[in-house]
Design goal:
The protein is α+β, with helices and mostly antiparallel strands and 211 residues long. 46% of the residues lie in helices and 17% in strands. Helix 1 packs across helix 2 (42-52) and helix 7 (181-197) packs antiparallel against helix 8 (199-208).
Length: 211
C-alpha cells in the first residue's frame, strides 16, 4: 500500500494578460466602449468589473485543473455545477495490475498525526481494506465488484474544468473555515497559484482566505 499527499496541477489556463484582454473586450461590448481599449487598459477595466460585481463577464474564460485527492473529497467536489469532470474509474482501474504497482494508493489524512494511535488505526484499516480488495480480485471478482470494499481515503485523480466565475465560487466555499479540512488542503494552494498568476481576478479571495 502506498500513502501519498494530495496535490493539484493546472492543465490549461491562458496567459494572464490574454485572459484580461478577452474579458475586457467582452465587457466593453456591454457598454460599447471598445474604442477605449489600449495596450494596457485591460487590468484596470477588469479590476473595475470585479469591484462592480459584474461577474458574468469573467465567465468567458475557462481553467482546467487536475486534482489528486481522496474519493471523499471528490464526492464533495462534483456537487458543484457549471463544471466538467473526468475522474479515475474504480470500475476499470484494477489496482492488482502492474501499472498500479499491485497495490492501492491512499491519501494521508492531514488531521491524523503520523505516529499517533488514531493514525495507526487508520493505517491498519487501509491495509486491511487492501488485503480484502486484492483477495476478491484473486478469487475472480471483477474490479467493478471488488471496489465495493475500497475506502474514502483511496487516491483518485479528477480533472475539473469551469469558468473563472465558478472557480471563484468553488474556492470561496471550499476554502472557508467551515469546509472539510481535506478539501481546504487542495483549494488553498490552488487559490495561491491563481492569485500569483492572475491577481486581478483572485486577489480579493486570497485576502479573505490567507491560510
Amino acid at each position: 500500500m502506498k500513502i501519498i499527499e494530495p496535490s493539484h496541477e493546472i492543465l490549461y489556463m491562458p496567459p494572464g494578460e490574454e485572459m484580461l484582454k478577452l474579458i475586457e473586450l467582452a465587457g466593453r461590448t456591454c457598454y460599447k466602449s471598445e474604442d477605449k481599449i489600449t495596450l494596457d487598459s485591460a487590468s484596470g477595466f477588469v479590476n473595475r468589473i470585479m469591484k462592480s460585481g459584474h461577474h458574468s463577464v469573467i465567465e468567458h474564460m475557462n481553467i482546467t485543473v487536475r486534482f489528486i485527492c481522496d474519493r471523499g473529497v471528490t464526492h464533495e467536489l462534483v456537487r458543484h455545477r457549471l463544471a466538467a469532470y473526468s475522474q479515475e474509474s474504480t470500475r476499470y482501474a484494477n489496482y492488482s495490475k502492474d501499472k498500479f504497482g499491485n497495490e492501492i494508493t491512499v491519501i494521508k489524512p492531514l488531521f491524523f498525526e503520523e505516529g499517533t494511535q488514531v493514525y495507526e488505526t487508520w493505517k491498519t484499516a487501509m491495509e486491511t481494506t487492501e488485503k480484502h480488495y486484492l483477495a476478491l480480485l484473486e478469487a475472480g471478482a471483477k474490479a467493478e465488484e471488488a471496489r465495493s470494499v475500497l475506502p474514502n481515503s483511496l487516491k483518485t485523480e479528477i480533472v475539473m474544468t469551469c469558468n473563472v466565475r465558478e472557480w471563484r465560487h468553488v474556492i470561496a466555499l471550499r476554502s472557508a473555515r467551515a469546509a472539510h479540512p481535506q478539501i481546504r488542503q487542495i483549494m488553498r494552494p490552488l487559490l495561491k497559484e491563481f492569485k500569483e498568476t492572475i491577481p486581478t481576478l483572485f486577489d480579493d479571495l486570497y485576502d479573505r482566505f490567507p491560510g
